[in-house]
Amino acid sequence: ARGKGAAGGTPDASVTAPTTPMTSRPKPDFQSPDVAHCLFDSERRYFLAGARNRPICGGTLSVVPGLQHLPAGCVLHSVVARPRSGDLVSWLRSLEQRVIRVGSRLCRFYLREGAEDLSPALAALGYSSNEETGYVRFFDRRCSDLIPHLSLRPLDPARDWTQKIQLCIQAGLGPDGYDMRHGAYATLERAKCKAGYMRSYLYWMGDRAVGAASLAIHDGFARLKNILVHPDFRGRGIGREMVVGMMAEARRDGATVFGVFGTSQASRRVYERCGLTPVVRQMEWSHAV
DSSP assignment, residue 179? Predict the structure, then answer.
């Protein structure tokens, strides 16, 4: 569900969070434009899950109650009516006022390809950007490299969240570059899992979790979310093993396409080595308010 409020307008209705099971059927026959749409739709579902959602500024503002101080806990996404250059200042003012009103101090939003002309003005207004590249891999009969990894196992909700919280605290910075040392990042992920959007996995060495990732599957499209490796164990190929292991899990669960957004050069190299191909871009913008 996408917002329809105009820039500066008052939201008029709540947006319903997704309730479709992770492994719903049937599976579509993907072509490239459809794959890009599925990546964006998976991003939309992630932000909607477990959040209070309102249409504003041509998109949807998703706020996770109690976690709105986190970057992913308050974000404007799915902007289908992007601001015009002449309206940018008023558009930002409306968004910033709403962000402050819900208790966040970070104004964060996404714009898709085609809004590059706004970049100089946004930068001049103090907003910083982070380009995200969407990658996909189609599953076919030649997937002999997709072997499940024994160290990568689904997180047990009754036992393993403490390990996940400790991993986030020790990691310091998350995959998107934001601070996770307070552990609330894991709490937000737990809310997304409880809402039915995704399932979390941990990568174990003995009795210690040293890596984490999550998987969401909808209509045959599998989405990798929030892959993380403990700083002491980076550079050992664990990230690549987790990506391959998650693809194996997705294929076993009936997915035909696997996708992810890469936010750094290191992550992009890993995805490309795992056979994923870049198909689309989006730009994240943020500024303290």
Answer: B
What pLDDT sits at residue 45? Answer: 97
Task: Evaluate whether 58 touches 7 at the Cβ level (below 8 Å).
Answer: yes
C-beta separation of 130 from 178 below 8 A: no
258, 140 Cβ separation under 8 angstroms: no
Using a pLDDT cut of 90, give the percent of the chain over it: 65
Predicted confidence (pLDDT) per residue in 144-198, tens digit: 788 778 899 999 998 999 999 999 888 877 666 667 767 788 999 999 999 999 9
Structure tokens at 146: 């997709």
Of 117, 152, 138, nearest to 240 by C-alpha is: 152
* CB proximity list for 41: less than 8 A, separation 6 or greater: 218
Do 129 and 285 touch, CB atoms closer than 8 A? yes
CA distance 91 to 85: 10
With tokens 């990732």, the residue in question is 213
What is the rounded distance in angstroms from the CA atom of residue 164 to the CA atom of residue 257?
Answer: 27
- 74 membership: H or E segment, kind and range: strand 74-77
What Cα–Cα distance (Å) separates residue 267 from each residue in 30, 132, 141, 194, 263?
24, 11, 26, 27, 7
CA atoms within 13 A on the CB side of 179: 4
Contacts of 283 by beta carbon, 8 Å cutoff, 6+ apart: 110, 111, 112, 115, 119, 129, 130, 131, 132
Quote the tokens at residue 128: 């910083």
Q: What is the 8-class DSSP label of residue 286?
A: E
- Angstrom distance (rounded) from CA 234 to CA 228: 10
Residues 6+ apart with CB under 8 A from 35: 136, 221, 257, 259, 279
- 46-84 burial code (b ≥16 CB/10 A, e <16): bbbbbbbbbbbbbbbbbbbeebbebbbbbbbbbbeebbe
Instruction: Name residue 223's amino acid.
Output: R
Is the backbone peptide bond immediately before 154 cis, with ω within 30 degrees of 0? no
